[in-house]
Amino acid sequence: MALLEVKNLGISFGGLRAVDEVNLSIKKGQLFGLIGPNGAGKTTIFNLLTGVYQPTDGTILLDGVSIVGKSTAEISMAGIGRTFQNIRLFKNMSVLDNVKAALHNHEKYSLLAGIMRLPLYYSKERQMNKTAREILKVFDLDKEENYLASNLPYGKQRKLEIARALATRPKLLLLDEPAAGMNPNETAELMDTIRLIRDKFDITILLIEHDMKLVSGICEQILVLNFGTELANGTPEEVLNDPAVITAYLGE
Amino acid sequence: MKLVEYIIGQLINGLNAGSIYALIALGYSMVYGIAKMINFAHGDIIMVGSYALYVFIVLMKMPVIVAILLTIGFCAILGITIERIAYKPLRKAPPLAVLITAIGVSFFLQNASLLIFKANPIPFGTIIKVDAVNIGNISISGLTIVTLVVTFICMAILTLFINKTKAGSAMRAVSEDKGAAQLMGINVNRTISLTFAIGSALAAIAGILFLSQYPSLKPTMGALPGIKAFVAAVLGGIGNVPGAMLGGMLLGIIENTAKAYISTEVSDAIVFGVLILVLLLKPSGLLGKKRIEKV
Amino acid sequence: MKKNNTNQKINHNISVKNEKVNLNAIQKEKKAEAKSAFNIKNLVILLCIIAGYFLLAYLVEYRLNRQFKSLIVPIGANIILAVSLNLVVGFLGELSLGHAGFMSIGAFTGAIFTLNMNLPGNIEFFLAIIVGGIMAAVFGFLIGIPVLRLRGDYLAIVTLAFTEIIRSIINTLSLPAGKDKAGELIVKKGAMGLSGIETYANYTWIYIAAVISIIVVVNLVNSRQGRIITSIRDNHIAAESIGIKVSRYKTMAFVIGAFFAGVAGVINGHNLSSIKPVDYDYNRSINILVFVVLGGMGSIKGSIIAATILTLLPEVLRPIRNYRMLMYAIVLIAIMLINHSTWKSRLQGNNLLSKIFKKEQVSE
Q: Which of A71-85, A141-155, C23-37 has the lowest mean pLDDT?
């Protein structure tokens, strides 16, 4: 059974049909790419999957359980983590605290334990620090753990956002243009990191990218969107050789 | 028959208070629509307008018409000045900073007039002297008629201005998308200034009408009508011009009914209750559009 | 093996870039990880608190004149108010103008409690503080639920309106003000306020209350819940995306803030001995906001210092008294403009400004 099963997903804003009849089936452990020109509805699909928008129609099953109608927070707890196209870090918090904030559902203690500094506070905080540092190390951010997030260079901010999403221990990680604004070197390096986290954290990844070449390098399956509808769906080779895709990208 | 007359009488009283709220609410709504901020100092413009009228008429012995026009002009310039000094440098600042600044401006206006005019209320005779009109057994005071007529004229002019003039369409464009408006060659700064000027002028008119009904000047006199007008703007849908009018009128009727049947103190609590209810049930207000936050 | 390779490659690439990393990055002190509450740092803090108390006692008993003695309790109460409002404004990032209203609820609840109970003084006062705080917290909860789900501006107006409403409601109430000598219940009109409240609030009480409220807020912001609260302030959309139930934690911070405002109200009432609803108005809320803004939003230390100085200043400099409120208004506008306006970046070459106004992270 697929980890994420989306059927006939659609949403309208007023009269505008932003996403229409989209089907997705992502297997566990897969690296899945979502591509398409600007305004094709890629980010809207992410927002639908994470409950920021409620779909007008269609079903979304995560591990066989419907997540339609759930709040963003509930969907995160159900196992979908995400990053944002325009980076959304907790800017005035330290790098370490950014990740620790995301651990809140896994290492819990009560308000009273925190205020009274009960032993539980110390043990849980230690555990959180340990886990957060392990995650930061994967992204080579461990040396900057005490920096304010806003003081990190751009590329590292993108990485921190992925680290934070991973800390919620998602089954499915949604990456919204993780390579946006990076140079070719940085992009190549980021793609290595993405493969690495897929293997290391044993999760499934759905990522949005503009760059067809780049996404075909790491994704096992690709869905091409155009004007909110499916244009093609298949392996990178199939998609790249699809005449419809070529037309959409290169024009007639 | 008596009951019907009584109800109509109360309704007219409600519309009377409501039209003043509507005039103030328009200022909140227009500024919110364009600058995406709640101008906390808006209520205090009413107070400044009232004192200005007092200075022009009583201290400087000017003719009433001239004093009224000067008051309106003074408030419009004050509105622009406030925007230029306090709000304009903060266009890109977080909303919390803008809000605190606006509260600072409100507090500044109150305390500046407290220093100038002292805390003791200054009595001020009404400047509107029109005879009451009797329709059947219902007597409508001249003041009420003037208030309703003035409000109606202001709204008609404003609606025409927004929908028919070039400056009006610039305003609508800026409230839709500041960046795009700028690219289309609209002078965004001037449009925002104009909005503050119009909002403040309307507040001045509301202040003059308010002062005619409650003829006493206090530095804090603008606060409560300001808050109530804000409730009216939210009730109608903040950022929406017809909504502000509708909300103002409705709120006036609600408040007046509460005053007539329960008590004056409780009526304030009821107005506040209306705000909570609207926020719970329909935060976008009666005529407001639901805004989707871009993620 | 392959994984290791990629790892090294990443390391290499980044360490090259590392050298260019922002020089003005604010690096927090690396915390030594304590294993329990019983560690050296806490012991030192405890000793400081005790020493502070003895210093205060010495000053009050031997050094200070009457005028300054009478300022000890107001300073402490203002510290509690400033620190608790900072939790809401600085850490949660929501503007509340209801602190005076919550104070009012605390003051009246506490006063009614001690006027009508016949318990031994200190026990009575302690219970009054708790009851007053809880009452304010309950009202905070009732207001917070509908309003905190919405965008920030609404909270400011609703809490401002709330303060006005509370005042007019207390004005219309009939308040039980204890029994007269014949054992008959005295009922007072709310507008007249309450008088004859025992002046239980002395420097010991206020010191304990202020220290506890500071510890609670500092510990809170450095806990799991505090991290959640600040993350909501920084980016509520991202906070939701990592599974934070935003309105729940907003309400939590707001209610805790209201509780301490109520506590300060009880203490204030038992210092002045007579209270009126009109004492707790809009101006009072703004006063407290000025402490927070001047001290720096998100800085507990700043709030404490600002509350102390601004309580002392009008007493020391009598002539500025009349202009105090006007100055406050200017402080609010000026600090926001300095911190956030476009000309801030131009001034930032001058390091002094950023040192004064930088957001301070509270370390444990």
A: C23-37
d(CA A88, CA A104): 18
- Of the partner residues B89, B107, B280, the one whose CB lies closest to the CB of residue C146: B280
Q: Which residue has the tokens 């080579």?
A: A140
**By the CB < 8 Å criterion, does A114 face chain C?**
yes
In percent, how much of chain A has pLDDT > 70? Answer: 98
Q: What is the pTM of this model?
A: 0.87
Give residue-wise pLDDT tens across range B180-231.
999 988 999 999 999 999 999 999 999 999 998 888 899 989 988 998 999 9
Strand partners, A199: none
Give the chain A residue whose CA is nearest to the CA of C244: A73
Selecting from C14, C223, C225 the residue whose C-beta is nearest the C-beta of A140 gives: C14
Q: Could you tell me how many CB contacts below 8 A there are between chain A and chain C? A: 159
Residue labelled with tokens 């309950």: C138
- Nearest-Cα distance to chain A for C142, in Å, is 20
3-state DSSP assignment of residue A30:
coil
Residue of C nearest to A147 (CA): C27
* Chain C residues with beta carbon closer than 8 angstroms to that of A101: 227-228, 230-231, 239, 242, 244
A104 interfaces chain C, CB cutoff of 8 Å: yes
| Digit-coded pLDDT (tens) for B223-235 | 889 989 999 998 9
pLDDT band at C102 (very low <50, low <70, confident <90, very high): very high
ipTM attached to this prediction:
0.92
Mean pLDDT, residues B127-156 taken together: 85
Segment 58-117 of chain A within 8 Å of chain B by CB: 84
CA B234 – CA C148 distance, rounded (Å): 16
B133 touches chain C (CB under 8 A): no
Element (H, E) at C130: helix C121-147
Torsion, CA B148, CA B149, CA B150, CA B153, rounded to 10: 120
Per-residue burial over A101-129, b if 16 or more Cβ lie within 10 Å, else e, is bbbbbebebeeebbbebbeebbebbeebb
Residue A46's pLDDT band, with cuts at 50, 70 and 90, is: very high
